[in-house]
Amino acid sequence: MLGKLVVIAVMMFGFGYLLIPVYKHICEVLGINNITQKDGTVALPGNTQVDTSRTITVELDSNAHGPWRFRSTQRSLQVHPGELATVVYEVVNVQPHTVNAQAIPSYAPNQVAPYFKKVDCFCFKQQTLKANEARQMPVVFYIDPALPKDVKTITLSYTFFEIDGLKDKTASR
User: Membrane spanning segments where (predicted)?
Assistant: First the structure.
């Protein structure tokens, strides 16, 4: 009986351990809720030519799930494919304790994800926000000139959520 219970406990641990990588892989295969580029970072291409004959509208969206205010400092911007652009998101922790958070990007339409190249992004790592801290976080990106010609608008959306409920015990007392 003890052996069966140990086997069940190990299987449950294994399932829980593998759940996140399996979820990320399923999202990547289906092209939904893309978390980051496949390699996690993007190097600038060597001889990028800016395609000034095309203008892409990038709409910026933000969603907050947790104890903070989260927003983009601008609603949209116009960029040429191949042109380096920077946008800034602002987050304010309105709680009296420290929280760990992570942002997950998504793109609309879904097929633009491989063409949206982030050079630097706050979404690459977890953010620790102290009590009542405000922070401006940039996203540096470019759009690959190979983007299909019929795409005129891209929506970049971030969902910012609490990771583990880390609380500064001294601030709570």
Answer: 5-23
Pairing of strands 56-65, 153-162: parallel
* d(C-alpha 126, C-alpha 55), whole Å: 32
The total of structural domains in the chain comes to 1
* Tokens encoding 26: 């399923």
With respect to residue 132, please indicate whether it lies within any of the assigned structural domains. Answer: yes
Q: Is this model's pTM higher than 0.90 or not?
A: no
Specify if 3 maps to a domain: no
- Residue 133 forms part of a structural domain: yes
Flag whether 128 is in a domain.
yes
CA distance 59 to 76: 4
Range of the domain at 110: 31-168
Residues of the chain with pLDDT under 70: 28, 30-48, 164-173
CATH number at residue 49: 2.60.370.10
